[in-house]
What we know:
By secondary structure, the chain is mostly beta strands. The chain has one domain: Roll (10 Kd Chaperonin, Protein Cpn10, Chain O). 0% of the residues lie in helices and 34% in strands. The protein has no helices and eight strands. The chain has strands at residues 20-24, 32-33, 39-40, 51-58, 70-73, 79-83, 86-92, 96-100. A six-stranded antiparallel beta sheet has the order 6-7-1-4-5-8, with no helix packed on it. A two-stranded antiparallel ribbon has the order 2-3. Strand 6 (79-83) and strand 7 (86-92) form a beta hairpin.
Amino acid sequence: MPKKTETPEDKIPIKMLNDRLLVKTPQSEGERRSSGGILIPATAQISKRLVWAEVVALGQNVRAAEIGDRVLFSPEDRYEVEVQGQDFIMLRERDIHAVAAERIETGTGLYL
Length: 112
């Protein structure tokens, strides 16, 4: 059976609902380097390690984040989804621990 080629008509728009966010993690989510330069493999388990991801779509009830922001969340609170061959993560707004964006006024003294 020949493989069907994707045409622009095959693409279906997606609207996120309620308090849902669609985020994309960086490709480098697997292996990491420590501040001392030690390579930490993707298979190494670090308990309760939070992850940063970029927001690519929002539901209409999301108030704390905008598209393009980086959000901090627990990998345990995620649902993975594939859209047009790319992997994304779907979150609820209540599962986000922090938002990093240029528009946010600094009060903590912390910077990314």
